[in-house]
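Worked Example 4.2. Consider the chain below.
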Amino acid sequence: MTDSLQTTPTTELLTDDPTWWRQAAVYQIYPRSFADSNGDGIGDLPGITAKVPYLTALGVDAVWLSPFYPSALADGGYDVDDYRDVDPKIGTLAQFDEMITALHGAGIKVIVDLVPNHSSDRHVWFQEALAAPAGSPARARYIFRDGLGEDGELPPSDWTSIFGGPAWTRVADGQWYLHSFASEQPDWDWDNEEVREDFLTTLRFWSDRGVDGFRVDVAHGLAKSLPEVLPSKAELDALPKADGDHPVWDRDEVHEIYATWREVFDSYDPPRTAVAEAWVEPSRRARYASAEGLGQAFNFDLLEADFDATAFHDIITYNLKAADESGSSTTWVFSNHDVVRHPTRYGLPPLAGREIKQGAEWLLAGGDASEVDAERGLRRARAASLFMLGLPGSAYVYQGEELGLPEVGDIPEAQRQDPAFFRNPGVDVGRDGCRVPLPWERTGESFGFGPGPAHLPQPTWFRDFSVEAEEGDPTSTLSLYRAALAARRELQTDETLTWEAVADTGAVAGAEPQVLHFSRPGGWHVVCNFGPTPVAMPTGEVLVASGPLGDAGEGPGSGADAVLPGETAVWLRA
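Applying the procedure from the previous section yields the following structure tokens:
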């Protein structure tokens, strides 16, 4: 692995606010699909550096980079060969330094993805494990087991991986290794001190280069307690996941690991930050977000909710209370590299309580764009995003979200890349549709993504969502995000809100099924009409609106007779 002594630290201001992350607007970059500088079809670090002016104009406080490490791309870069280097297809460490210098020079912080649950099967330590005998120190870094059956020909258990298929793979000498995800992603054994120390070295390596924080992938999966006789899949699935004693997920011991990480974070000035991707019961999220641990944790509750006033009210109220109790700040997110983009989700029939990912049924049926109410989906997405950007806490924006990009649902099978598609046929179409490279221009082989074709196919309608198409349009989604992020930065104060009575009914928001209205300190009001029917709007100066407003359909919509159209949000100054 790359020696940490090769680090070239970037210059930072030691007077930076150590709490910058609490209400930051963070822009997620999926590097392979953001901007391609050399025409090989894959986005790269120089491509990101070239787009720093765009990110500055957008108004974000930080960027989060999905994995850019050397990888065979068995899982889109989340199969990491070397945690302390850059994939040659994406760039070099020197280009990473140039990128971070450019971002910091623009006042933008940098968060990098860390994948501590598993490495790739090409990692030097896993290759050592394959070459070493059973019971060796090299194998002790991973989870190897003897098989069942007369000759160990059966896996240690019937567990399945997250991506489908067996969770165990047999090696040449007959032993089996555990992989919670793809077979190319062997799970680390976090009881091993070498593993723990090596990840501390990795945290220091990137922190020394000027990285401001880390997004921790599968943060709830590191600690495991596997008895000699493993439970069956049915028994494992039946075990409770909210008591800290599940054999595989969300064990209490994982927080001992993060306490040692916190010591590293706090050794820097300003301290480094972290946010956990922890798919756990809401009651278990606070420990990941504690000041003694990672400091913040994703809540995906709005991402999983229908466009519904009552659901939004309850989710927001719960998460703000939980964040206050933990001393952290909450996070809000609608789209990312793993889910159907929310303009498409909101154009599909609501989940209405069904336990299935939004958009999954549509994707399995072929992802026919004609089945999506695209106009309504975008209108709802704009309203939801503006409403969310007014909330206290950190707002995460996924690349292309600011363009209103829909999901690309009908990628031909021969051009798909996600292992979930190949390992779970007929069950999971995968995540390629939200990872299609961005359109920057109206024309060109890849709409300005790069000089050549993109690594995933872009539909022809992408031209209408390109940065070039939206740049000069004051009604575009890009203009909306820029206006909202600029106003958010100006207006943001204490991490509190007050639910206001809804003017047309007198009911407290949350008891009213159509409209939500909250105020923030300093006289800033956010109102969203979740229903289809126009409603009376509070008086005040209109700061930003997700769509056209009017007095009975005309005018600026800020007078006594102003109305808020259906599925529209507005920010007002009282």
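The first helix runs from residue 45 to 50. The chain is about 25% helix and 10% strand. Compare this with Example 4.1 before moving on.
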